[in-house]
Amino acid sequence: MSAKTAHPATDAAGQHWVRIEQRAAETVQETGYLCAETETLLQGMARAGHKGIPVGCLGGGCGVCKVKVSAGSVRRVGPMSRAHVSVEEEAQGICLACRVAPLAKVEVEVLGRLKKALGKAPGFSWSAGVAKLGASDCATVNVKET
């Protein structure tokens, strides 16, 4: 089990600290990065050059980036496949990292897993493949810290 490291909740530029927790057998791995309110959790992770949340289709349909928000607040920025996240799960803080943006410091536990190796599409790049988010949000999820 790793020790938690203190990080600022929010910086002056409207970015929020995202802490990722991955559990495997008896071990827990943690990493974190700053993510802007104008980008999804996956976009922020890629921009910061971190790994931790599995990356799949980037469009909310594959379920690979499924996470549970255990603390903090996020807003939904696009449709989430009900095949991967039910309404009940979403109410409990479970979501797809490619479809939510942080509104405060966020702690997530990785639930999704790659089922097979995914190659990136020819000519794909994060900067060209994923646009910045607009101001319209579909839903907000708040999770109390424990």
Task: Tell me what you see in this structure.
The protein is mainly beta and 146 residues long. The protein has three helices and seven strands; from the N terminus they run ββαβαβββαβ. The chain has helices at residues 41-48, 87-91, 126-129, and strands at residues 15-24, 27-36, 66-76, 94-96, 100-102, 106-110, 139-143. Strands 1, 2, 3, 4, 5, 6 and 7 form a seven-stranded mixed sheet that branches. A hairpin with a 2-residue loop joins strand 1 and strand 2. It is globular and about 35 Å long.
Q: Can you give the helix content as a percent range?
A: 10-25%
Poorly predicted runs = 1-6, 116-124, 126-146
Overall pLDDT: 76
Q: What is the H/E order?
A: EEHEHEEEHE
How far from one another are the termini? 18 Å
| Radius of gyration over C-alpha positions, nearest whole angstrom | 14 Å
Q: How many E-type strands?
A: 7
Number of helices: 3
Tell me about the largest β-sheet: 7 strands, mixed
Structural class by sheet pairing and helices: mainly beta
Shape verdict = globular
Percent of residues in beta strands? 25-35%
Question: Could you provide a short overview of the structure?
Answer:
By secondary structure, this protein is mostly beta strands.
Q: Which characteristics define this entry?
A:
146 residues, disordered N terminus, disordered C terminus, mainly beta, seven-stranded mixed β-sheet
